[in-house]
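Changelog note: in this version the structure field was regenerated for every chain. One regenerated record is shown below for reference.
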Amino acid sequence: MIRHTPTPGWVYSGGLVLATTAGAINAVGFLGQHHQALSHMTGSVTVLGMELAQANYGIAFHAFAILAAFFFGCLISGAIIRQSSLRIGRRYGVTLSLESASLFLAVYYLRRGSSAGDYLAALACGLQNAMVTTYSGSTCAPPTSPGW
């Protein structure tokens, strides 16, 4: 039997702020030098496949690096939070602080026209995505074992 517990209002407010942040980051990616998604990886996978098929390896590498940065952000977030239930006292602040630092660095590099800004923004999106996916209940907790 599935039991549903009521979600506090502050969770919805926080979700709105995080969704708005991801949308803004994506808009920056589309308006930037490479016109590529930074928070939604299906677009980056599509670009990667299309550019590999056309032998545009420089653009394909950029798309791959964005995917890798996003994935690395997810790994970092998972390693920091390590829990699947939303509770005050978890290390969400650490993850959000790393996201914020990544975004400030991204701005620095994007203003100079460096691709590193795209990678840092994608890393920040990976951090946020894994954090939200974890506490929203979209994923299951990993099995308890000595390695976890």
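Spot check on this record: DSSP finds five helices and no strands in the chain. Residues 57-81 form the longest helix (25 residues).
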